[in-house]
C-alpha cells in the first residue's frame, strides 16, 4: 500500500496520507512548528506511525539525492 494518495475527489488532489483525508503537509507543518510526532498522531488518529516513518524516510532519501546531484 502506498503511503501517499492523490485523488481529485479528496481535497482537490492534495497529497494525503493513504486512507485518510489528512494532508501530508500537515506533518511537516507540525514539525516546523516544534510539535512532536506524538502530538501529530494524537491529533490525526487515522494516520499511523508507520505512515509517518515512511514519509520521513522518503524525505531523507530525496534530500540525500538532491545533495548528491
TrEMBL record:
InterPro entries: DUF433, Homeodomain-like_sf, WH-like_DNA-bd_sf. Signal peptide: none annotated. It holds the Pfam family DUF433. SUPFAM superfamilies: Homeodomain-like. Gene3D superfamilies: Winged helix-like DNA-binding domain superfamily/Winged helix DNA-binding domain. It comes from the Bacteria. This is DUF433 domain-containing protein. It comes from uncultured Sulfurovum sp.
